[in-house]
Amino acid sequence: MPGQRKFKLRRIDETRWEIPMVGGMRVPGLIFSDSSLLPDIEKDNSCEQVYNVAHLPGIVSYSIALPDIHWGYGFPIGGVAAFDLDDGVVSPGGVGYDINCGVRLATTGLTRKDVIPRIKELVDSLYSTIPSGLGSTGKIRLNRKALSEVVKSGAGWAVKQGMGDASDLEHIEDHGSLTGAESASISERAFERGKDQLGTLGSGNHFVEIGFISEIFESEVAQAWGLFPDQATLMIHSGSRGFGYQICDEFLARMIKNISKERIELPDRQLACTKISSPLAREYLSAMAGAANFAFANRQILMNLVKETWEVSMGLSPGKLGLSLLYDVSHNIAKIEDHVVNGKKVKLCVHRKGATRALPPFHPLLPGRYLKSGQPVLIPGDMGRCSFILVGAQGAMDQTFGSACHGAGRVLSRNDALQRTKGRFIEQELQDRNIYARSAGRKTMREEFPEAYKDVVSVVNVVQKAGLARKVASIKPLGVIKG
Amino acid sequence: MNQHTLPWKLLEHPADIRIEVYGTNLEQIFLNSALAMTSIITGTDGNTEELFGKNLSLKSDSLEDLIVDWLREILFLFNVKRFVFCDASLKIDETNTIEARLFGYFTESSDRFLDGVEIKGITYHGLLLEKTGDGFLARIIFDV
Q1: Among B13, B118, B143, whose Cβ lies nearest the Cβ of A134?
Q2: Is residue B4 part of a domain?
Q3: In this structure, are residues B136 and B25 in contact, taking their beta carbons and an 8 Å threshold?
Q4: Contacts of residue A269 in chain B, CB cutoff 8 Å?
């Protein structure tokens, strides 16, 4: 918090603040925010975490925080850090426990008028079909061999089983499968913890949301992406479940034991890391890729479950729903990527923890459909207000290693949220706003009530003003299932 | 620690769950930390189930690491073996080794824990285990 800090924030312009280098910092910190969001950021330790990350060996250019930043553990949530492959490190804490927690958005051929009269039946059906909540287990039970195929192939495995279309894979970050995933890098415990969790939503802030396009900001891009006003949409937020948590947990413990051997000084042990060139780093990146692929498969399975349920619930013949995957992005990941630093093309290990990749037009990793426009960047808000579809812009490549924010960012603790909603019936309050919501956990609705989050409009406006991504459309919720 | 009605309390944290735990000795702080975590993941206190015993032996580089490893094991047992921790008899020695007999019950379904919160991991961020005037105090952040 400001009073006890070893550094001072320096305003660069209306959307950027710098933590100038002091003490053991190897690079400055760079925080994207504005005068309305900054006071909330300053309330907790998130700026200290940006400062701490700047101490890590081999970090390049800046320790970056996006406007949805909030206090995490080790790395801030809403943070980006890129590391040189020779001198730099990889850190499981820079990815997080929920490896490849992410969001996918699919459009439909329906409008909100088609959905509103049936929203209760639809949400109730989804609620009974999609396993959600603490420790939920799915119907897909795989043996070790089949799970190893999921680890290797990601969303492609689900498509091969008939859950989705091959064209879906083009519309997923990295085609729904990170390379380098090896089962040999993953422990028996991780397999055990993840074996019955494929096709489950999880708990807390994970959700399935039926919504509609409430506003279009860039009609040319929206049209090219098949978006139109009032179009019904599906958004899914989930990750690698216990499989990813276990992998993060084990590698974190191994790296903590290894720190003194590698002579890495850390301001916070949760930043435990290892040189990217080490065998332990290679093993972690391989296991992390496996968890990322598990998450890609999970979201693919969940989308297929929603599709089948939606069609049955509304009495639509197969195909009439017109469900089409717009994009699937990862929020928690570390990847080796090409970037330009000081005019030179370099390979870096980019950690995004609570951040979204945001590629500009004509980036070589874009699929044909998005080559001219840039990558769809999906920003869920809270369950009562709105979410955004953005398009990646060149400013992200120039300033944030091709990254934008990942959501609204919490502003209240779960405990605070429970205190403030005492005696309130959030489901009813949402229904009064024409949003039908259900949750598995009894406290989830209150912990996740809209005001527990920053206003996503302010967050996205900073991203747009800073040139990281531009608004294409906004989505308002009609029905939500929370974990 | 007599002034505390529960041997642990929630501290403020915007995204995760941060707890402060009290104990008159090391063994008690380990026990209370495990009970606090179980209370968070199940949303309940106490039980009426038949208890089963399980042995657990762990050695870590430091006491702080040991408390993380201890909670990690109990969390794994809950998530994978559906073993709900209720009590333990334990001994911690000067080599940061814990020998424990855990007592708990097995549950088929997590549906009964509707007030529970899923803990993804036990973090090292802001981890504290220290001696105080009248015992020990621990601060732990769980990723949820």
Answers
A1: B118
A2: no
A3: yes
A4: 124-125, 127
Distance CA A268, CA A79 (A): 16
In a domain, B123, yes or no: yes
Q: What is the CA radius of gyration of chain A?
A: 21
Tell me, yes or no, if B120 comes closer than 8 A to chain A by beta carbon. Answer: yes
Residues A454, A40: contact at Cβ < 8 Å?
Answer: yes
Beta strands in A296-331 (DSSP E): 324-330
**ipTM of the prediction:** 0.88
Output the domain CATH number for residue B91: 3.55.10.10
Task: Give chain A positions within 8 Å (CB) of B80.
Answer: 189, 192-193, 242
Residue A225: what residue type? Answer: W
Residue B8 lies in a domain: no
Residue A86 carries which DSSP code? T
Question: How open is the CA angle A200-A202-A205, to the nearest 5 degrees?
Answer: 140
B68 touches chain A (CB under 8 A): yes
Query: Is there a catalytic annotation at residue A339?
Result: no
Q: Residue A77: phi, psi to the nearest 5?
A: -85, 130
Chain B residue with CA closest to A249: the answer is B121
Lookup: tokens for A68: 């949805």
- Chain A closest-CA separation from residue B66 CA (Å): 11
Tell me which residues of chain A, numbers 24 to 53, contact chain B at a CB-CB cutoff of 8 Å: 44
In this structure, the number of other CB atoms found within 10 A of the CB of residue A417 comes to 22
B106 forms beta bridges with B83
**pLDDT tens, residue by residue, B96-113:** 999 999 999 998 766 678
CB of A469 within 8 A of CB of A391? yes
Exposure string over A70-84, b if 16+ CB within 10 A, otherwise e: bbbbbbbbbbbbbbb
**For the domain A2-85+100-482, what is the CATH superfamily, name and number?**
tRNA-splicing ligase RtcB (3.90.1860.10)
Kindly name the residue from A175, A331, A363, A406 that is annotated as catalytic.
A406
Please answer yes or no on whether A203 and B117 come within 8 Å at the CB atom.
Answer: yes
Residue B1 is assigned to a structural domain of this protein: no
Q: What is the pLDDT of residues A393-416, one digit of tens each?
A: 999 999 999 999 999 988 888 888
Q: Is the dihedral of CA A56, A340, A396, A331 positive or negative?
A: negative
**H or E element in which residue B140 lies:** strand B135-143
- Domain ranges, residue B105: 17-143
CB within 8 Å of chain B, chain A residues 184-213: 189, 192-193, 202-204
Domain coordinates of chain A in residue numbers? 2-85+100-482
Residues A226-240, mean pLDDT to the nearest whole number: 98
The reply to whether residue B125 touches residue A97, judged by beta carbons under 8 angstroms, is no
Q: Determine the Cα–Cα distance for residues A356 and B98; give it in Å rounded to an integer.
A: 42
Contact B113 A134 (CB under 8 A): yes
Residue B1 pLDDT exceeds 90: no
- Please tell me which residue of chain B has the smallest CA distance to A74: B125
How many structural domains does chain B have? 1
A279-313 vs A119-129: helix crossing angle, rounded to 10: 140
Q: Which of residues 423-452 of A touch B (CB under 8 A)?
A: 440-443
Q: What number of C-beta contacts closer than 8 Å exist between A and B?
A: 107
Q: Cβ contacts (< 8 Å) between A256 and chain B: which residues?
A: 65, 124
Residue A319: burial class (beta carbons within 10 Å; 0-12, 13-18, 19+): exposed
* pLDDT at res. B111: 62
